[in-house]
Amino acid sequence: MLPIRLLNRAISQDPRHRTRGRGKGEGAHRLNSTWLRSRQFLSGFLLAFSYLCCATAAEPALRDTMDGDAPVMRLDGDSDFKLLDQRIDRNALGNGAEVIQLVGPSGQSAQLTYDLPAAPTIAELKLATVIRCNRPGVQIAARVVLPRSRNSQTGRRLDILLRGSNISRGLPQETLVLENLPQLLQRQARVERIKSSERIDEREAYVRQLVFLVPGGSGATQISVDQIELYGIVQERLADQNVVQASVESDAGVSQADSPGASAAEHIFPAQGIKQHPHRTSEVYRIIQWQGESFEKLSCLGFNAIWLARTPTFAELDQARALKLALVCPPPSSSLISTQGITPRWDPVLAWDLGELVNAVDLEPVNRLKQLILQHDQIESRTTVMTCNHLTREAS
Protein backbone atom coordinates (compact mmCIF):
# COMPACT_ATOMS: atom_id res chain seq x y z
CA MET A 1 0.00 0.00 0.00
CA LEU A 2 1.28 3.47 -0.90
CA PRO A 3 1.94 5.92 1.93
CA ILE A 4 -0.83 8.51 2.19
CA ARG A 5 1.52 11.37 1.23
CA LEU A 6 2.63 9.66 -1.97
CA LEU A 7 -0.96 8.69 -2.75
CA ASN A 8 -2.10 12.30 -2.46
CA ARG A 9 0.78 13.47 -4.63
CA ALA A 10 0.01 10.90 -7.30
CA ILE A 11 -3.67 11.85 -7.34
CA SER A 12 -2.97 15.57 -7.47
CA GLN A 13 -0.62 15.11 -10.44
CA ASP A 14 -3.08 13.01 -12.41
CA PRO A 15 -4.12 15.08 -15.51
CA ARG A 16 -7.66 13.74 -15.27
CA HIS A 17 -8.18 15.60 -11.98
CA ARG A 18 -6.80 18.99 -13.04
CA THR A 19 -9.43 21.67 -13.64
CA ARG A 20 -9.38 23.55 -16.88
CA GLY A 21 -9.43 27.32 -16.74
CA ARG A 22 -8.26 27.38 -13.12
CA GLY A 23 -9.37 30.58 -11.44
CA LYS A 24 -11.69 31.56 -14.32
CA GLY A 25 -14.99 30.84 -12.65
CA GLU A 26 -16.98 29.47 -9.75
CA GLY A 27 -17.26 26.05 -11.39
CA ALA A 28 -13.51 25.45 -11.22
CA HIS A 29 -13.39 26.49 -7.56
CA ARG A 30 -16.33 24.24 -6.70
CA LEU A 31 -14.70 21.29 -8.50
CA ASN A 32 -11.42 21.84 -6.65
CA SER A 33 -13.21 21.95 -3.29
CA THR A 34 -15.18 18.80 -4.01
CA TRP A 35 -12.09 16.92 -5.13
CA LEU A 36 -10.15 18.10 -2.08
CA ARG A 37 -12.84 16.76 0.26
CA SER A 38 -12.94 13.45 -1.63
CA ARG A 39 -9.16 13.14 -1.45
CA GLN A 40 -9.15 13.86 2.29
CA PHE A 41 -11.87 11.26 2.84
CA LEU A 42 -9.95 8.68 0.80
CA SER A 43 -6.75 9.40 2.71
CA GLY A 44 -8.50 9.05 6.07
CA PHE A 45 -10.21 5.84 5.00
CA LEU A 46 -6.97 4.25 3.83
CA LEU A 47 -5.18 5.34 6.99
CA ALA A 48 -7.90 3.83 9.18
CA PHE A 49 -7.95 0.66 7.09
CA SER A 50 -4.17 0.29 7.39
CA TYR A 51 -4.35 0.76 11.17
CA LEU A 52 -7.14 -1.82 11.45
CA CYS A 53 -5.20 -4.39 9.39
CA CYS A 54 -2.04 -3.88 11.44
CA ALA A 55 -3.92 -4.15 14.72
CA THR A 56 -5.64 -7.35 13.61
CA ALA A 57 -2.45 -8.95 12.29
CA ALA A 58 -0.59 -8.16 15.51
CA GLU A 59 -2.95 -10.12 17.75
CA PRO A 60 -1.16 -13.21 19.13
CA ALA A 61 -2.81 -16.61 19.33
CA LEU A 62 -1.29 -17.15 22.79
CA ARG A 63 -0.18 -14.59 25.36
CA ASP A 64 1.08 -15.58 28.81
CA THR A 65 1.78 -12.67 31.15
CA MET A 66 3.67 -15.02 33.48
CA ASP A 67 1.83 -13.83 36.59
CA GLY A 68 -0.08 -16.98 37.49
CA ASP A 69 -0.35 -18.58 40.88
CA ALA A 70 2.77 -20.74 40.46
CA PRO A 71 5.90 -20.78 38.27
CA VAL A 72 5.62 -22.79 35.06
CA MET A 73 9.14 -22.86 33.65
CA ARG A 74 11.50 -25.80 34.23
CA LEU A 75 15.26 -26.17 34.34
CA ASP A 76 16.64 -28.89 32.09
CA GLY A 77 18.30 -31.43 34.36
CA ASP A 78 21.05 -32.35 31.89
CA SER A 79 23.35 -29.48 32.85
CA ASP A 80 25.75 -28.28 35.54
CA PHE A 81 23.42 -25.48 36.61
CA LYS A 82 21.66 -25.36 39.98
CA LEU A 83 18.38 -23.62 40.68
CA LEU A 84 18.62 -21.19 43.61
CA ASP A 85 15.20 -19.54 43.54
CA GLN A 86 12.02 -19.51 41.44
CA ARG A 87 8.99 -17.38 42.21
CA ILE A 88 6.28 -15.08 40.87
CA ASP A 89 7.25 -11.48 41.63
CA ARG A 90 4.34 -9.00 41.65
CA ASN A 91 4.35 -5.21 41.67
CA ALA A 92 1.97 -2.85 43.45
CA LEU A 93 -0.59 -3.12 40.61
CA GLY A 94 -0.72 -6.90 40.83
CA ASN A 95 1.16 -7.48 37.58
CA GLY A 96 3.84 -10.10 37.87
CA ALA A 97 6.68 -11.92 36.21
CA GLU A 98 8.39 -15.25 36.76
CA VAL A 99 11.81 -14.74 38.35
CA ILE A 100 14.47 -17.46 38.30
CA GLN A 101 17.87 -17.42 39.97
CA LEU A 102 20.46 -20.02 39.04
CA VAL A 103 24.19 -20.53 39.15
CA GLY A 104 26.42 -22.31 36.67
CA PRO A 105 29.86 -22.34 35.07
CA SER A 106 31.03 -19.63 32.72
CA GLY A 107 30.91 -20.50 29.04
CA GLN A 108 27.84 -22.71 29.40
CA SER A 109 24.11 -21.99 29.14
CA ALA A 110 21.21 -23.33 31.16
CA GLN A 111 18.04 -24.39 29.35
CA LEU A 112 14.81 -23.08 30.87
CA THR A 113 11.82 -24.62 29.09
CA TYR A 114 8.26 -23.38 28.63
CA ASP A 115 5.69 -25.83 27.19
CA LEU A 116 3.70 -24.71 24.16
CA PRO A 117 0.73 -26.10 22.23
CA ALA A 118 1.92 -28.09 19.22
CA ALA A 119 2.51 -25.36 16.61
CA PRO A 120 3.45 -26.38 13.04
CA THR A 121 6.70 -24.82 11.82
CA ILE A 122 5.18 -22.64 9.10
CA ALA A 123 6.41 -19.29 7.83
CA GLU A 124 3.83 -17.36 9.88
CA LEU A 125 4.95 -18.89 13.18
CA LYS A 126 6.71 -16.45 15.50
CA LEU A 127 7.66 -16.47 19.18
CA ALA A 128 8.32 -13.37 21.27
CA THR A 129 9.14 -12.77 24.91
CA VAL A 130 9.92 -9.86 27.22
CA ILE A 131 12.74 -10.48 29.72
CA ARG A 132 15.08 -8.77 32.20
CA CYS A 133 18.42 -10.35 33.07
CA ASN A 134 21.42 -9.19 35.10
CA ARG A 135 23.72 -10.76 32.53
CA PRO A 136 23.83 -10.27 28.72
CA GLY A 137 23.73 -13.16 26.28
CA VAL A 138 20.27 -14.65 26.83
CA GLN A 139 18.98 -16.36 23.70
CA ILE A 140 15.67 -18.05 22.93
CA ALA A 141 15.21 -21.22 20.93
CA ALA A 142 12.42 -23.56 19.88
CA ARG A 143 12.43 -27.27 20.62
CA VAL A 144 10.96 -28.85 17.49
CA VAL A 145 9.63 -32.40 17.28
CA LEU A 146 10.13 -34.38 14.07
CA PRO A 147 7.24 -36.89 14.08
CA ARG A 148 8.64 -38.76 11.06
CA SER A 149 12.05 -39.37 12.68
CA ARG A 150 13.03 -41.58 15.60
CA ASN A 151 15.77 -41.50 18.17
CA SER A 152 17.26 -45.00 17.94
CA GLN A 153 18.48 -44.88 21.55
CA THR A 154 15.22 -43.84 23.22
CA GLY A 155 12.68 -44.97 20.61
CA ARG A 156 10.88 -41.66 20.90
CA ARG A 157 10.32 -38.98 18.29
CA LEU A 158 13.44 -37.05 17.46
CA ASP A 159 13.56 -33.39 18.51
CA ILE A 160 16.04 -30.66 17.66
CA LEU A 161 16.75 -27.16 18.96
CA LEU A 162 16.37 -24.13 16.69
CA ARG A 163 18.27 -21.10 17.97
CA GLY A 164 17.35 -17.55 17.08
CA SER A 165 19.81 -14.80 16.24
CA ASN A 166 18.27 -12.31 18.69
CA ILE A 167 20.52 -12.13 21.82
CA SER A 168 19.92 -9.97 24.89
CA ARG A 169 22.33 -7.16 25.83
CA GLY A 170 21.58 -6.92 29.53
CA LEU A 171 19.18 -3.95 29.29
CA PRO A 172 16.48 -3.30 31.93
CA GLN A 173 13.79 -4.71 29.61
CA GLU A 174 14.29 -6.46 26.28
CA THR A 175 12.12 -8.19 23.70
CA LEU A 176 13.52 -11.32 22.07
CA VAL A 177 11.92 -12.64 18.87
CA LEU A 178 12.26 -16.02 17.18
CA GLU A 179 10.99 -16.22 13.59
CA ASN A 180 11.80 -17.71 10.15
CA LEU A 181 11.45 -21.17 11.68
CA PRO A 182 11.18 -23.12 8.39
CA GLN A 183 14.56 -21.77 7.27
CA LEU A 184 16.10 -22.48 10.67
CA LEU A 185 14.65 -26.00 10.57
CA GLN A 186 16.12 -26.78 7.14
CA ARG A 187 19.51 -25.44 8.20
CA GLN A 188 19.60 -27.41 11.45
CA ALA A 189 18.34 -30.58 9.74
CA ARG A 190 21.36 -30.46 7.43
CA VAL A 191 23.64 -30.14 10.45
CA GLU A 192 21.96 -33.08 12.20
CA ARG A 193 22.35 -35.27 9.13
CA ILE A 194 26.11 -34.64 9.21
CA LYS A 195 26.45 -35.20 12.96
CA SER A 196 24.24 -38.28 13.28
CA SER A 197 23.42 -41.42 11.37
CA GLU A 198 19.72 -41.03 12.21
CA ARG A 199 17.20 -40.57 9.43
CA ILE A 200 16.15 -36.91 9.55
CA ASP A 201 12.79 -36.03 8.01
CA GLU A 202 11.59 -32.52 8.90
CA ARG A 203 8.12 -32.84 7.34
CA GLU A 204 5.17 -32.14 9.67
CA ALA A 205 7.53 -30.79 12.34
CA TYR A 206 5.98 -28.82 15.18
CA VAL A 207 7.26 -26.68 18.04
CA ARG A 208 6.84 -28.22 21.49
CA GLN A 209 8.74 -25.86 23.79
CA LEU A 210 10.18 -22.38 24.00
CA VAL A 211 13.69 -22.66 25.47
CA PHE A 212 15.58 -19.85 27.22
CA LEU A 213 19.36 -20.28 26.91
CA VAL A 214 20.67 -18.45 29.99
CA PRO A 215 24.45 -17.98 30.31
CA GLY A 216 26.35 -18.77 33.50
CA GLY A 217 29.29 -16.96 35.03
CA SER A 218 30.62 -15.49 38.24
CA GLY A 219 27.86 -15.21 40.83
CA ALA A 220 24.16 -15.94 40.34
CA THR A 221 22.25 -15.24 37.14
CA GLN A 222 18.77 -13.81 37.61
CA ILE A 223 16.28 -13.74 34.75
CA SER A 224 12.76 -12.33 34.87
CA VAL A 225 10.32 -13.46 32.16
CA ASP A 226 7.52 -10.91 31.84
CA GLN A 227 5.56 -12.13 28.80
CA ILE A 228 5.49 -14.91 26.21
CA GLU A 229 3.57 -14.60 22.92
CA LEU A 230 2.93 -17.04 20.11
CA TYR A 231 1.85 -15.92 16.63
CA GLY A 232 0.87 -17.85 13.53
CA ILE A 233 -1.39 -20.68 14.71
CA VAL A 234 -5.16 -21.06 14.75
CA GLN A 235 -6.34 -19.96 18.17
CA GLU A 236 -9.20 -22.46 18.47
CA ARG A 237 -6.84 -25.43 18.14
CA LEU A 238 -5.38 -24.60 21.54
CA ALA A 239 -8.34 -26.37 23.14
CA ASP A 240 -7.88 -29.53 21.06
CA GLN A 241 -6.96 -32.32 23.48
CA ASN A 242 -4.80 -34.01 20.84
CA VAL A 243 -2.76 -30.82 20.49
CA VAL A 244 -2.39 -30.51 24.25
CA GLN A 245 -1.38 -34.14 24.56
CA ALA A 246 1.25 -33.74 21.84
CA SER A 247 2.67 -30.65 23.49
CA VAL A 248 3.21 -32.39 26.84
CA GLU A 249 4.18 -35.77 25.46
CA SER A 250 5.60 -38.01 28.13
CA ASP A 251 9.28 -38.86 27.97
CA ALA A 252 8.58 -42.34 29.30
CA GLY A 253 7.86 -43.83 25.90
CA VAL A 254 5.99 -43.62 22.61
CA SER A 255 2.21 -43.33 22.56
CA GLN A 256 0.06 -45.72 20.63
CA ALA A 257 -0.53 -43.10 17.92
CA ASP A 258 3.23 -43.10 17.29
CA SER A 259 3.25 -46.64 15.98
CA PRO A 260 4.52 -46.96 12.38
CA GLY A 261 1.11 -48.11 11.16
CA ALA A 262 -0.78 -45.15 12.57
CA SER A 263 -2.34 -42.91 9.95
CA ALA A 264 -1.98 -39.15 9.92
CA ALA A 265 -5.69 -38.76 10.53
CA GLU A 266 -5.35 -40.38 13.97
CA HIS A 267 -3.29 -37.40 15.12
CA ILE A 268 -5.98 -34.94 14.04
CA PHE A 269 -9.39 -36.20 15.11
CA PRO A 270 -10.56 -36.87 18.67
CA ALA A 271 -10.97 -40.33 20.08
CA GLN A 272 -14.72 -39.92 20.56
CA GLY A 273 -15.40 -40.93 16.95
CA ILE A 274 -16.22 -39.70 13.51
CA LYS A 275 -19.62 -38.26 14.40
CA GLN A 276 -18.10 -35.17 15.98
CA HIS A 277 -15.28 -34.30 13.63
CA PRO A 278 -17.09 -33.03 10.49
CA HIS A 279 -18.91 -30.38 12.49
CA ARG A 280 -16.21 -28.95 14.73
CA THR A 281 -15.61 -25.39 13.57
CA SER A 282 -12.26 -25.23 15.39
CA GLU A 283 -10.72 -27.98 13.23
CA VAL A 284 -8.28 -27.12 10.47
CA TYR A 285 -8.85 -29.28 7.40
CA ARG A 286 -6.31 -30.27 4.79
CA ILE A 287 -8.52 -30.96 1.76
CA ILE A 288 -7.46 -32.60 -1.49
CA GLN A 289 -9.51 -32.81 -4.67
CA TRP A 290 -10.28 -36.46 -5.30
CA GLN A 291 -9.21 -37.91 -8.64
CA GLY A 292 -9.81 -41.60 -8.08
CA GLU A 293 -7.10 -42.32 -5.50
CA SER A 294 -7.79 -44.71 -2.64
CA PHE A 295 -8.92 -43.07 0.57
CA GLU A 296 -6.24 -44.98 2.50
CA LYS A 297 -3.46 -43.47 0.41
CA LEU A 298 -4.74 -39.91 0.84
CA SER A 299 -5.07 -40.44 4.58
CA CYS A 300 -1.49 -41.73 4.83
CA LEU A 301 -0.30 -38.64 2.92
CA GLY A 302 -1.68 -36.46 5.71
CA PHE A 303 -5.00 -35.26 4.28
CA ASN A 304 -7.97 -35.32 6.62
CA ALA A 305 -10.65 -34.23 4.12
CA ILE A 306 -11.46 -35.12 0.50
CA TRP A 307 -13.41 -33.05 -2.03
CA LEU A 308 -15.46 -35.26 -4.39
CA ALA A 309 -16.98 -34.04 -7.65
CA ARG A 310 -19.86 -36.53 -7.31
CA THR A 311 -22.09 -37.87 -4.56
CA PRO A 312 -20.25 -40.65 -2.67
CA THR A 313 -21.57 -44.16 -2.54
CA PHE A 314 -22.55 -45.77 0.75
CA ALA A 315 -19.38 -47.86 0.60
CA GLU A 316 -17.28 -44.71 0.29
CA LEU A 317 -19.13 -43.11 3.19
CA ASP A 318 -18.37 -46.15 5.36
CA GLN A 319 -14.74 -46.07 4.27
CA ALA A 320 -14.43 -42.37 5.11
CA ARG A 321 -15.96 -43.04 8.51
CA ALA A 322 -13.48 -45.85 9.21
CA LEU A 323 -10.51 -43.68 8.20
CA LYS A 324 -11.86 -40.63 10.09
CA LEU A 325 -11.94 -38.56 6.89
CA ALA A 326 -14.26 -35.63 6.25
CA LEU A 327 -15.91 -35.25 2.84
CA VAL A 328 -17.02 -32.28 0.75
CA CYS A 329 -19.40 -33.53 -1.94
CA PRO A 330 -22.66 -32.90 -3.79
CA PRO A 331 -25.77 -33.86 -1.80
CA PRO A 332 -27.98 -36.82 -2.75
CA SER A 333 -30.81 -36.23 -5.17
CA SER A 334 -33.77 -34.10 -4.15
CA SER A 335 -36.10 -37.07 -4.36
CA LEU A 336 -33.87 -39.13 -2.08
CA ILE A 337 -33.64 -36.29 0.44
CA SER A 338 -37.44 -35.82 0.38
CA THR A 339 -38.24 -39.52 0.85
CA GLN A 340 -35.40 -40.76 3.11
CA GLY A 341 -34.03 -37.57 4.62
CA ILE A 342 -30.35 -37.09 5.53
CA THR A 343 -29.60 -40.04 7.78
CA PRO A 344 -26.61 -40.44 10.15
CA ARG A 345 -24.92 -42.44 7.40
CA TRP A 346 -24.01 -39.07 5.84
CA ASP A 347 -22.21 -37.89 9.00
CA PRO A 348 -18.73 -37.94 7.38
CA VAL A 349 -19.85 -35.08 5.10
CA LEU A 350 -18.37 -31.79 6.24
CA ALA A 351 -20.09 -29.59 3.62
CA TRP A 352 -22.49 -30.00 0.72
CA ASP A 353 -21.18 -28.83 -2.66
CA LEU A 354 -24.05 -27.18 -4.55
CA GLY A 355 -22.11 -27.04 -7.80
CA GLU A 356 -21.11 -24.19 -10.09
CA LEU A 357 -23.19 -21.10 -10.74
CA VAL A 358 -22.96 -20.29 -14.46
CA ASN A 359 -25.84 -17.89 -15.09
CA ALA A 360 -28.81 -16.37 -13.31
CA VAL A 361 -31.21 -19.19 -14.22
CA ASP A 362 -29.21 -21.52 -11.96
CA LEU A 363 -29.98 -19.47 -8.86
CA GLU A 364 -33.52 -20.72 -8.25
CA PRO A 365 -32.71 -24.49 -8.46
CA VAL A 366 -29.72 -24.01 -6.17
CA ASN A 367 -31.82 -22.06 -3.68
CA ARG A 368 -34.53 -24.75 -3.65
CA LEU A 369 -31.91 -27.45 -3.10
CA LYS A 370 -30.38 -25.56 -0.21
CA GLN A 371 -33.77 -25.03 1.44
CA LEU A 372 -34.47 -28.76 1.09
CA ILE A 373 -31.14 -29.58 2.76
CA LEU A 374 -31.80 -27.18 5.62
CA GLN A 375 -35.20 -28.77 6.13
CA HIS A 376 -33.90 -32.35 6.39
CA ASP A 377 -30.33 -31.98 7.70
CA GLN A 378 -30.28 -32.58 11.46
CA ILE A 379 -26.76 -31.16 11.82
CA GLU A 380 -27.10 -27.38 11.79
CA SER A 381 -23.36 -26.69 11.67
CA ARG A 382 -22.93 -28.49 8.33
CA THR A 383 -22.57 -25.81 5.69
CA THR A 384 -22.99 -25.54 1.93
CA VAL A 385 -20.46 -24.33 -0.63
CA MET A 386 -20.62 -23.46 -4.31
CA THR A 387 -18.40 -22.20 -7.11
CA CYS A 388 -19.13 -19.04 -9.03
CA ASN A 389 -16.87 -16.92 -11.20
CA HIS A 390 -19.71 -14.52 -11.99
CA LEU A 391 -22.86 -13.37 -10.21
CA THR A 392 -21.10 -13.45 -6.86
CA ARG A 393 -23.47 -10.84 -5.46
CA GLU A 394 -26.52 -12.93 -6.38
CA ALA A 395 -24.93 -16.10 -5.09
CA SER A 396 -24.16 -14.58 -1.71
Features:
alpha+beta; elongated; five-stranded antiparallel beta sheet; 26% helix; disordered N terminus; six-stranded antiparallel beta sheet; single chain; 396 residues; 9 helices
Q: How would you portray this structure in words?
A:
The protein has helices spanning 4-12, 26-57, 181-195, 241-247, 295-300, 314-323, 334-340, 363-376, 392-395; strands at 62-64, 74-75, 82-90, 96-103, 109-120, 126-133, 139-150, 157-167, 174-178, 206-215, 221-231, 287-289, 305-307, 326-329, 349-357, 383-388. By secondary structure, it is an alpha+beta fold. Strands 1, 3, 4, 6, 9 and 11 form a six-stranded antiparallel sheet that branches. A five-stranded antiparallel sheet has the order 2-5-10-7-8. Strands 12-13-14-15-16 form a five-stranded parallel sheet. The protein is elongated. Helix 1 runs antiparallel to helix 2 (26-57). Mean pLDDT is 77; it is low at 1-24, 45-57 and 236-282.
Q: What proportion of the residues form beta strands (DSSP E)?
A: 25-35%
> Average pLDDT across residues?
77
Low-confidence stretches: 1-24, 45-57, 236-282
State the helix count.
9
Shape: elongated
Question: How would a textbook summarize the main sheet?
Answer: 6 strands, antiparallel
Quaternary form: single chain
Q: Let me know the number of strands.
A: 16
Q: What topology emerges from the helices and strands here?
A:
Layout: H1 4-12, H2 26-57, E1 62-64, E2 74-75, E3 82-90, E4 96-103, E5 109-120, E6 126-133, E7 139-150, E8 157-167, E9 174-178, H3 181-195, E10 206-215, E11 221-231, H4 241-247, E12 287-289, H5 295-300, E13 305-307, H6 314-323, E14 326-329, H7 334-340, E15 349-357, H8 363-376, E16 383-388, H9 392-395
Parallel strand pairs: 12-13, 13-14, 14-15, 15-16
Antiparallel strand pairs: 1-11, 2-5, 3-4, 4-11, 5-10, 6-9, 6-11, 7-8, 7-10
